[in-house]
Amino acid sequence: MRPVSLLELRQVGYQVGDTPILQDINLTIDQGEWVTLTGPSGGGKSTLVRIMASLLSRTSGELSFVGKSIDDYDPIAYRRRVSYSFQQPTLFGATVRDNLQFPYQIRQLPFDQQRAVTALKYVGLTAADLDKAVVDLSGGQRQRVALLRNVMIYPEVLILDEVTAGLDADNKAFVWSMIRHFNVDDGITIVAITHDQAEIDAAKRLVTLADGRLVGGAQ
Ligand SMILES: Nc1ncnc2c1ncn2[C@@H]1O[C@H](COP(=O)(O)OP(=O)(O)OP(=O)(O)O)[C@@H](O)[C@H]1O
Question: Which residue range is the domain that position 51 belongs to?
């Protein structure tokens, strides 16, 4: 049986003035998939995922999520279900706990400490690190905690825009293992942009974008 289609793009285009940035994008992403998006710099990858995340509006074509046009969703509710993380996430508050609690606070939900401890394990941190000061974390640890903050309340789709760029090999491996847990254990659909050759070689499904068009991996 075919899995549920989560995101469906039909003839999606994006143009600024007379300049086409994306053209004729046809792509279906099923529930539970892990899609790796790559291609030359300036090819339109960030623009495409920002459209999928409802941070930019397409200028042509159709985009649906779970069978319904994204125009029919409340944008805030949509962005909770389709979460977007980019390269340099920032931390705030004094401690790791402050950051992981934040998604619960804004939704007026009780903090799920058990979920936090499990998620911290994914990224090589422990329950004791909950009360660690943000200023005492390494750059790589900060990146991992910032990513965790985005998935504390499970999104259905996690869009990652070059989140491993600039990380050293150890931190890349932690972020990778975290993404694998989200995908395999939590069933979160992943769309990840990368230029990293090892990540491209290991891709489950590779989609390539060049000059604003899909040149490989589309369905
Ligand atoms: N608002 C805009 N106005 C003009 N040009 C734009 C705008 N947004 C994007 N572009 C152009 O569209 C092209 C695609 O940009 P985008 O950032 O999506 O590419 P990318 O594939 O993510 O690149 P990289 O791999 O370098 O991050 C680039 O040439 C960029 O300059």
Answer: 5-216
- Six token digits for residue 72: 């029919």
Q: pLDDT tens, 57-94?
A: 999 999 999 999 999 999 988 998 999 887 666 788 89
Q: What is the ipTM for the molecules in this complex? A: 0.94
Q: What is the pTM of this model?
A: 0.88
Ligand 1 contact, 155 CB (< 6 A): no
Q: Is the CB of 141 under 6 A from ligand 1?
A: no
Residues comprising the chain, all counted: 219
DSSP H/E element including 13: strand 5-16
β-bridge partners, 35: 191, 205
As for how many domains the chain has, the answer is 1
CATH code of 63's domain = 3.40.50.300
Collect all residues with Cβ–Cβ distance below 8 Å to 67 and sequence separation of at least 6.
5, 8
The answer to whether the CB of 18 is under 6 A from ligand 1 is: no
